[in-house]
Design a protein that fits this description.
This protein has 321 residues and is α+β, with helices and mostly antiparallel strands. It folds into 3 domains: 2-63; 74-173 and 257-320, Alpha-Beta Plaits; 187-254, Double Stranded RNA Binding Domain, CATH 3.30.160.20. It is built from 7 helices and 11 strands. It has helices at 2-33, 40-63, 85-105, 134-138, 228-256, 294-298, 303-320, and strands at 74-80, 108-116, 122-130, 143-150, 159-170, 187-192, 208-213, 218-222, 270-275, 281-284, 289-291. An 8-stranded mixed beta sheet has the order 2-3-1-5-4-9-10-11. A 3-stranded antiparallel beta sheet has the order 6-7-8, covered by helices on one side. A hairpin with a 5-residue loop joins strand 2 (108-116) and strand 3 (122-130). Helix 1 (2-33) packs antiparallel against helix 2. The longest helix has 32 residues, at 2-33. The radius of gyration is 23 Å and the shape is globular. The two termini are 35 Å apart.
Length: 321
């Protein structure tokens, strides 16, 4: 049933678009025969044409998501980098930006892990995002995000630069097998008490878990569920997804003979810069796409960057092949 639903989502919008284009062309032909190139009816045709063009662009964008994993839900993790409290505050801003994007697009976002900062903001958080082609649309957000602003924590009102990393991995389903190895030899499972606000019982029991995967160096912690078993299951799910993404990246790197774009969370390695002072602009350094309405971007309007990345990446892959 899931596969049928996904196929319908791919086919039916194109069929509807084809039908609407035929109707619009027929109406435009009738108006032309009658010599009515201006007026209310012509304006209706123009408006319909623009709406069709926008739908076509969206469907073309979706048609770029052909990889097996593109249609899957995903895990989006944000983590603070160089900058201390500033960086942790910036990480929370990014967390809100992606949460708002999910709200705007009707995607379901569940908080799996949320570690508060020592003074402000958060050290890191993990979202599970579910919706049509969630991983396909968000995979281009993986990388280092830089913020430049006047610090609200600096009494001298000086400009500060903060860094945070974003990591997006697909949630693999039962049809994809990932070998995580043997306990004690390849991975270790630790239990601890949850931290943060929590509920009545969350912080009173040893319900949080942490999995350390030795070969890859991946560490996954879960603490938001009340049950140790639920946290354990989610942690293993995230671990398998991150290992799967690592394998996909290795294959992409080998096929295209290029180095991984992931770098240290520090100067000179940013994927995107968000400048709030002395001017306002968000710049994606891969495709040099600039948007001056920084507040709108931070409020979740990141679709131009998502669409721009997919088109840019398609062009890069075509050139590489």
């Amino acid at each position: 049933m899931k596969k049928i639903t996904m196929l319908k989502m791919r086919v039916e919008p194109w069929e509807k678009l084809e039908h609407d284009i035929s109707e619009n062309l027929e109406m435009a032909g009738l108006l032309k025969e009658e010599g009515m190139t201006e007026g209310e009816d012509a304006e209706v045709i123009d408006a319909a044409t623009q709406e069709i063009r926008e739908r076509l662009e969206k469907l073309e964008l979706q048609s770029m998501l052909t990889a097996e994993e593109d249609q899957l839900p995903c895990f989006l993790k944000v983590h603070s980098g160089a900058g201390g409290t500033e960086s942790q505050d910036w990480t929370e801003m990014l967390f809100r930006m992606y949460s708002r994007w999910c709200e705007r697009n009707g995607y379901k976002a569940d908080i799996l892990d949320y570690a508060e900062g020592e003074q402000a903001g958060i050290q890191g958080a993990t979202l599970r995002i579910e919706g049509p082609y969630a991983y396909g649309f968000l995979k281009g957000e993986t990388g280092i995000h830089r913020l430049v602003r006047i610090s609200p924590y600096d009494a001298n009102a000086r400009r500060h630069t903060s860094f945070a990393s974003v990591d997006v991995t697909p949630e693999i389903d039962d049809t994809i097998e990932v070998d995580i190895g043997v306990q004690d030899k390849d991975w270790r499972l630790d239990s601890f008490r949850s931290s943060g606000k929590g509920g009545q019982k969350v912080n009173k029991t040893t319900s949080a878990v942490r999995i350390t995967h030795h070969p890859s160096g991946i560490v996954v912690s879960m603490q938001n569920e009340r049950s140790w078993h639920q946290n354990r299951e989610l942690a293993f799910q995230v671990l398998r997804s991150r290992l799967y993404e690592m394998e996909l990246q290795k294959r992409r790197d080998k096929a295209q003979e290029r180095e991984s774009e992931k770098k240290d969370i520090d100067f000179g390695s940013q994927l995107r810069s968000y400048v709030l002072h002395p001017y306002k602009m968000v710049n994606d350094h891969r495709m040099e796409m600039k948007i001056t309405d920084a507040e709108a971007v931070l409020d979740g309007e990141i679709d131009p960057f998502i669409e721009g990345y997919l088109r840019w990446n398609l062009g890069r892959d075509t050139k590489g092949s």
